[in-house]
Amino acid sequence: MILYVLIGVLVLAVAGCASVVWAARGGPRWVRAVATATLLGGEIVRSGQRRSGNRGGGGEDGGADGSD
């Protein structure tokens, strides 16, 4: 069952990337809408990763391992 979910997510990701490329070449309105949704979804994921990365405190310059 989990395999089908992962395949579905993969298909959606590939279709989203294809719509971004098609929209960049001047595709129809619905393709531009899907491309916009794909890009917004990517921004949301990236902002979530930045926020969760700041809470950890163990980033490149925030680590306290004493290896100065």
Structure description:
75% of the residues lie in helices and 0% in strands. It has helices at 2-24, 29-56. It is flat and about 35 Å long. It starts with a helix and ends in a 12-residue tail after the last helix.
Radius of gyration: 18 Å
Indicate the mean pLDDT.
84
Q: Give a short account of the largest sheet.
A: none
Range of helix content: over 70%
Any idea what the shape is?
flat
Number of helices: 2
Order of helices and strands: HH
Q: Structural class of the secondary structure composition? A: mainly alpha
What is shown here, in short?
The chain is mostly helical. It has two helices and no strands. The longest helix has 28 residues, at 29-56.
Helices, strands, pairings?
Blueprint: H1 2-24, H2 29-56
What key attributes describe this structure?
single chain; 68 residues; mainly alpha; 0% strand; flat
